[in-house]
Amino acid sequence: MGIEEIYSYFPFKLFGLSRGDLNDLVEAEFAAEVELCRANPDMVRQYLDMKRAGHRVGFISDTYWDSGRLARLLRACRPGLVWDFLYASCDHGSGKSETLFATYLAEQGIDPGASFHVGDNEKADIKGAKRHGIHPRYYPQATAQLASKFQRETALFELLCTGAPSRLDHGARTLRRMVAGHNAERSQAFHLGLTVLGPVMTAFDAYLTRRCGEIAGPGRKVSLGFLGRDGFLSHRIRQELHDTTSAYLEINRRVSLIASADTMQPLVDLLSKVFKIDAPTFHDMMKIMPPKVAAFFAAFPGGIASGEELAEALPGLIDPAEIVALAAGLRARLLAYLRRTIPGFDDCTDLVLADLGYSGSVQKALRRIFDLEGIEIRLHGAYLMSLDDAFDDLTAEDSAAGFISDLVVTPHVKRMLIRNVALLEQACCSAAGSVRDYDDGAVLREINPRPPEQMALAAEIQAGALTFAASADDVARDYGLDPYAAPDVAANWCAATLARLLLLPDDDELALLGTLKHDVNLGTHALAPLLDQQFVRNQITARGLSAACTAAAPPMWLAGSFAGLSPSYNYLYVLFGANRLPADVFEERPSRPVQVGLFRAGGDATLEAVTVHRTGLGELRVRIPLSRGMAITMIALPLAKFAAEGLLHGVTVQRGDDVRDAAESQDVVGIAADGLIWAGVQWNGGHYRADTEDGCLLIPVTAVTQEIAVYSIAITPLGADPK
């Protein structure tokens, strides 16, 4: 089919056109094709080699462009190109999978065994050539895995990057395909760095160059520093591409906040974000252990308190003067380190801090440190992702900006990305332990609690990213690509590329990355799991889909945990994060009442009515609240009455001081299947079927340690709906 025939089906009237405009539409598309097409240097080299060897060389293409336009397109890509034959499928009414090769052989009078065909379509080019006795060479444009990633990226681009066209990326994906094609035989982790992380971080490096250029000016001496440990890969790429004097600065939130403390408040803010903490960890962080603090920890089970509890009590536990003295000492050591690490620090007028993001806590702490010490260096944050509303309190002289800013994706989407950013942090992180202090300008580090195999995996991912960065400029030049010329386009596509990895991973990535653990890095040696799909399943059972989508860490990679359940649950999570998941469709609604049996230790039993809810995914939810005073030891759920056959997804329990606290608690405990009793019900793995009208699921009740316990059951019913 030719282009004119294709456009004959165009809805002309819908766009205020007539059939007389058909040729204008054809020429407009052809002009776009000429502008966007590039000659593949590998193919050009092979073509010229064949011509120099005296072989007859030409082109055979499945295309809706006729041979005249195809010739114009080829010469636009490679001026002066000549050929011995040219075949376009639309001229002959047949493609390479049909009779076009036969036409070529007959008209050219060529022995098939002496003919050689290069193509990128396994069916049309390779199988089609073989069927006619022609020797084929397969030159794939992209692997199936990379093509699948591109498809997911396009879907996320259209979902998350509102107001931008998804079709044009200034050659970014072409660049990724070509670089990947030159590094085919490498590990899966290397390819993740090569095809996903490398392109994002190389575009970020181009952004940093622009950012430094915007800050520079007459009378200004600008220095660039990459904040460790997450800025490690960015710094390596900077060194690879530019060999500049940029510095790698081992400063973390904990050290900078303590050093900036001239009151108790920065320390309170820091500790309030710690999940759990004990006395040894507090001493490692603060280097002091006042008696009141020791007594505070001793009052908690196992000596472990929440950071929020400690932050609330801290003003009454420590003399503020101790904090001020502690901060002053650390501040002096930190400044000695900066002077040793940043060339010409005392002559610097503007310091650009490059980091993954997000709210500039280190930048703000450094500002307080510089102000306390009378240092007038202006600070400028340059972040891969920025929570832009967090920078309203910067001084007029300082600034902060994000490559992926609120102009690229909404703050709602940004928070979903940052909720899952631990995966990116682990991939970009240094293998060294986190900084804890400085000594005469040298870094003193914590131990690195991450296992060696995890650091080896991160190193392999970084090797792939560095390979992309090192070859991107040369490959882009060969193909006439300029993917970073338009900053807004580059930012949008990097947001989609990064979102695809963090929010919509494929099965291979889950298997590769699912065992990683996140270094909490707040003066502890704790490692938090990235993935925990059972956690998500329990949250859905007990609290519903929307509540599961807003669950606090851990697990650190919530999107990956949803993906571990199923791709559909994963996509629902993404829709929720994009504010595209209507609660009245996917949340539960009351369906019918059912009488459950509640048994006490002495054998007494009562029937209580509870409501069966149905979710938007067709699952049934039953929630049964129990108080400590009821002394219930067994729950009998009459499955035969409302779901005689089905799939049991789980039974969970939550506890609290009242029903509301228990129902909203994220501390959901799953009850093992072997702890349930099936009475008059056949049970086979997740599937069950009631044999009698009295078939029940018996749920043993553990001792109620708080006032209220809420038991939740999630079922997908199968078969006929009982009446």
UniProtKB/TrEMBL annotation:
SUPFAM superfamilies: HAD-like. InterPro entries: HAD-like_sf, HAD_sf. This is HAD family hydrolase.
